[in-house]
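User: I'm curious whether this sequence folds into something compact or stays loose and floppy. Could you predict its structure so I can see for myself?
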Amino acid sequence: MLERNQLPLRPAAPGFAVAWVTVIAGVSVALSLLFACVTPFVALAAVSAVVLPRKMAIMAVLLAWLANQTVGYLILGYPQTFDSFAWGLTIGIAAFASLVASLGVLRLKAGPAATMAGAFIAGFVAYEAVLLAATVVLPSGDDAFSAAVGAEVLLINSLAVIGLICLHAGAAAGRALVAAQPGPALP
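Assistant: Here's the prediction. I'll summarize afterward.
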């Protein structure tokens, strides 16, 4: 079991952090194909914030968003209109707001489970707040922020965060991937 002092991840080799960022981007592609407009950026941002060094978490969220946009426009056929591009950019901003909120929770002195839960909740609130604020200037459907849609987004992100935590726990279980002695995290 990982201890709080092992988070963010202290890789035994810098290559593991890079591999984890690649996994996050790959998961983003898969989830983009599966859920299209409901890619769980909150889950991706929260887990990245908790298990990766800050710079790697930023890279993970950036690559996840770029992968999502690439899949959307090149494979799923998102419309190439100003509104669509603006919403794509807004989703990117919301994903980074989620990451910032999740990183803010790391300052609290709590165990790994409470830290992860707090990062997820703070990230979800920040993500949804940015999207809701964007509806002031960008067109959206009448039911885009209905209780049903909000519940679906929360459910997808909740399942994704559980899956990502399990994936991370499995990868870290061998201890070959995580430094045995707590040391400085990668920048």
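Summary: The radius of gyration is 16 Å. Helices lie at 14-35, 41-51, 54-74, 82-105, 112-134, 147-172.
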